[in-house]
Inverse folding.
């Protein structure tokens, strides 16, 4: 009697877990016998699949990502404006202003900030640059009347730093917790579907469910062999997921 073999779902990593659940769900929906015979279990699996998909999407893109992207673009515009003004003033006919511009240009060269560099690295360098602009180079900034521009650059850089920290906190708490919960619910739903199909294969016509069982077992074998990471040598053997194990003939 064909039965769906067990698999320890908790060991399937990352997005591969969603893909496994999604593949089984789609195949069940395409199988007329399974779709009718395990209607309730399939509906539950579909709902948990959708929740896991949403949790994965949120883990890839925080709700704060758009704010960060807009602030980063604004910072780039302000920095380039500061650099261009300083460069242009090097040829100003008033020597005091030209000299101030040359010092600022050299300062910018020393920091070598590239708006295309890694965002957090740019934020860190910008903090130190802004400290210099407000400190030892404050007179040059004042000479070229760049105070409002420097202040705007400081505000947007601080916005980037604080928003990035908030996004990290958000991801490490809510997003991770939601994904973990979604995976567990999907595991339970998958196991319920397995138990139902295995039971139907016993009490009904086994051939009606053979194609679906063969498909799932092929997926299980693939994930065991290619996806699930091997256990460490000192790790105690894991028992098969009790709720994913094949139903006995008395189901």
């Amino acid at each position: 009697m064909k039965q769906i073999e067990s698999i320890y779902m908790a060991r399937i990593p990352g997005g591969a877990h969603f893909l496994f659940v999604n593949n089984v769900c789609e195949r069940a929906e395409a199988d007329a016998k399974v779709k009718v015979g395990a209607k309730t279990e399939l509906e539950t699996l579909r709902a948990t699949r959708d929740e896991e998909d949403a949790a994965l999407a949120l883990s890839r893109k925080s709700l704060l990502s758009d704010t960060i992207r807009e602030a980063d673009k604004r910072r780039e515009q302000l920095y380039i404006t500061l650099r261009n003004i300083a460069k242009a003033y090097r040829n100003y006919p008033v020597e005091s202003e030209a000299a101030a511009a040359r010092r600022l240009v050299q300062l910018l060269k020393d920091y070598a900030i590239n708006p295309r560099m890694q965002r957090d690295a740019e934020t860190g360098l910008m903090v130190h640059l802004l400290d210099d602009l407000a400190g030892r180079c404050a007179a040059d900034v004042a000479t070229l009347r760049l105070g409002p521009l420097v202040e705007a650059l400081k505000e947007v850089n601080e916005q980037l730093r604080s928003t990035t920290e908030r996004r990290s906190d958000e991801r490490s708490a809510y997003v991770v917790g939601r994904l973990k919960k979604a995976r567990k619910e999907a595991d339970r739903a998958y196991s319920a579907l397995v138990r139902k199909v295995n039971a139907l294969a016993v009490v009904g016509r086994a051939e009606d469910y053979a194609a679906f069982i063969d498909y799932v077992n092929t997926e299980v074998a693939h994930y065991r062999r290619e996806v699930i990471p091997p256990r460490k040598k000192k790790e105690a053997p894991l028992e098969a997921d009790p709720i994913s194990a094949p139903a006995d003939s008395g189901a």
In short: The longest helix spans residues 147-203. Residues 235-251 have pLDDT under 50 and may be disordered. Residues 162 and 229 are 37 Å apart (CA to CA).
